[in-house]
Design a protein that fits this description.
With 221 residues, the chain is mainly alpha-helical. 64% of the residues lie in helices and 10% in strands. The protein has helices spanning 3-37, 84-116, 122-158, 182-188, 191-220; strands at 40-48, 70-79, 174-176. A 3-stranded antiparallel sheet has the order 2-1-3. The longest helix is centred in the middle third of the chain and has 37 residues, at 122-158. It starts with a helix and ends with a helix.
Length: 221
């Protein structure tokens, strides 16, 4: 690659990284402010003995329905209550996801600047990839659980009937709280982001090992 092409590529990476960094920081402000000061929103599963009557040709009548009940996935709960703990959990989850973008874009900016100045960047690359990889893994595994915990706590605080509680009457509509179900916890993990984080961490370790081997080789010459 010629010097001109290399410089152009690095400047382009620097500009794109800076734009992404600034955009993520600016976008974080209304996102977090909305969680704290706006209506609280959460998604949950609704368990009910009622059956939705959705006619296809307009001829379905309530008496013709034979289903005993239904479970609705993705019911949205909205409330203007304070809900301090649920809002705090959602803020932490949002910050974790934002940190992935901020960390990645900041790493691109710093690497591009060092390479434009022809300064060593291997140590920065290895440490940067490792740190951003750890943040990505944490965001992929923990942030969805915090979102679920926020919904669970909010449902309790708002006084909704909870599915499986002895206090909930049979046949009553109720909210399913899946937080402590191990299978549901695994299902909520953001697999693509988790894999990206693991790959970044492994590449960071490989870069660090490559730098060490290079120094050892230079010491033998």
């Amino acid at each position: 690659m010629s010097v001109t092409a290399r410089t152009t590529a690095l400047i382009t990476a620097l500009i794109l990284g800076a734009l992404l960094l600034i955009g993520s920081l600016i976008g974080a402000v209304p996102a977090i402010a909305g969680i704290v000061g706006d209506l609280w929103n959460g998604r949950a599963d609704l368990v009910t003995d009622g059956t939705p009557l959705i006619p296809i040709d307009g001829t379905v009548h309530p008496a013709e329905s034979e289903a005993d009940g239904a479970s609705y996935s993705g019911v949205t709960i909205t409330a203007d209550a304070p809900l301090a703990l649920p809002r705090s959990l959602q803020v932490i989850a949002a910050v974790m996801n934002i940190l992935v973008i901020v960390g990645g874009s900041l790493l691109v900016v710093m690497l591009a600047m060092r390479m434009l100045r022809s300064r060593p960047f291997a140590r920065l690359l290895s440490w940067g990839l490792g740190i951003v990889g750890v943040i990505a893994v944490a965001a992929a595994a923990v942030a969805p659980q915090l979102e679920a915990a926020a919904v669970d706590v909010a449902v309790r605080e708002l006084g909704f009937a909870v599915h499986g509680d002895s206090s909930t009457a049979d046949g009553a509509d109720s909210i399913a709280l899946p937080l402590w179900d191990p299978l549901w916890m695994l299902d909520r993990v953001d697999i693509p982001l988790l894999l990206i984080g693991i790959v970044m961490g492994v590449v960071g370790l490989l870069v660090a090992e490559g730098v060490r081997l290079q120094k050892d080789t230079e010491g033998l010459v």
